[in-house]
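Hello forum,

I keep getting stuck at the same step: I have a sequence, I want structure tokens, and every attempt I make locally crashes halfway through. Rather than fight my setup again tonight, could one of you with a working pipeline run this one for me? It's a single chain of 110 residues.
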Amino acid sequence: MSEFELSQDSSDSQNGSAATMEEFLNQEEASNKRLAHGDIIDGVVVRVDPDEVLVDVGSKSEGVISSRELGTREAGTPDLHSGDRIKVFVLQPENEDGNVVLSLRRARAE
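Reply #2:
Ran it on my machine without issues. Output:
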């Protein structure tokens, strides 16, 4: 293989890497969209604890629905399970723990 062919191959792979890196950065930027109070977003229930529900909202941090927000099951609050897809309302983009504070009731009322 000649020096020109090696140089050409190297240049092609660098262009491919640059395009791939640009695509990756664009995807990363889209997934890091800043959440704001009042946004209604889709999420996936990650974990249900007695005091909170952890929700994957597609950003770097996870969202939290407090037990106060859920109320009691007798009052018509849905029974949530890990893996459930839900719509949630953003109450606070980030709390002191770095989590997004979410409301299930407000999302359903909107």
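The mean pLDDT is 77. If your local run keeps crashing, start a new thread with the error log.
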